[in-house]
Design brief:
415 residues, alpha+beta, six-stranded mixed barrel, 17 helices
Length: 415
Amino acid sequence: MALPYEIFIGLRYTRAKRRNHFISFISLISMLGVALGVAALIVVLSVMNGFQTELRTRILGVASHVQINGMDGDLPNWSRVAMEAGAHPEVQAAAPFVQAQSMLSVDQEVRGVLVRGIEPMLEERVADFARYMQSGKLDDLKPGEFGIILGSELARALRVHLGDKVTVIAPQGSVTPAGVVPRLRAFTVVGIFEVGMFEYDSGLALVDLGDAQKLYRLGDRVSGVRLKLNDLFDAPRVAREVAGMINADAYVADWTRSHANFFRAVQIEKNMMFIILSLIVAVAAFNIVSTLVMAVTDKQADIAILRTLGARPGSIMTVFIIQGALIGCIGLGLGVVGGVSLALNIDVVVPFIERLLGTQFLAKEVYYISELPSELQWGDVWGVTLIAFVLALVATLYPSWRAARVNPAEALRYE
């Protein structure tokens, strides 16, 4: 089937060897500019997605998807609450915990920490502490032995290692004839973990649930119950539904509320990077304007001949829209292929560049995430593709409109 002549001429103009080679050079620069901008936008969005996923994984490896807390800091009959919450089809596991602010003392060093009492067997079902253990394991927390697992930064600040003793100072005091004195208990360091989040590595200590209940005089009560869900993104909905299922004086919070500011900041940063890099694509796309303006000037005689042969102004406009759109689409295709390839292989490309330059972009001594993560999301790719195509199409409108307004008599006067 024969192509409409507008498409045929537009394709012909794009691939024809022009008398003015400078126009061809500008067309090539426009294509490469669009390709570079699109590729950069896809790669940066993939890296931002990777960082967001990595941070979420590390935070939720210590925190919980949903947490049920007692209103007064303690939750009686936690097993019944866990059973009621576990009846929800989205709840995968539940584990009790005791949590309180305390102080750790070793020789002259004192640090304020958050002490969390856990049941090791149940905790492994709701958190990923096992993957972050540098030494020791959760099972080393045995009831009655008063063992403690410290974050790596906390252990470093206190200068303690496995087998060393630390003194836990509970905030609740004991009444004696001499007055109220703080309660002290010696614990043995049985493990050290490193999550990669300074908040946890420097301020969290784990002890056995029974030992924590004795230390804080809770009896058989706990501070709350932690839940793990099948899909962490359903946490807000599940939290609302669980709150209506449990019969206890407690409040339910999900991870999106407890870390809302942090994840909102990451999302805002991603959105800002998208806007900034979209401007690069816009600048590259509007280079097509200069290309087509010069092409229209160069082809004025051809336009005049087409008009005298009966071509309508709309047809002339279509010819140059097709020419500009083809330039944009070629650059867009190259950018998508290059950006997707780089995003999928960034774990190979970045180490190669680091070895080539003899440096490390994310040094382990400075950054907790020492490798550049990448997570390609096809929704981002389609969004970038659509925006780049629309910008390239908009850039063709003014030059094409100018071409449609060329006066044949004026264009052929000096030919």
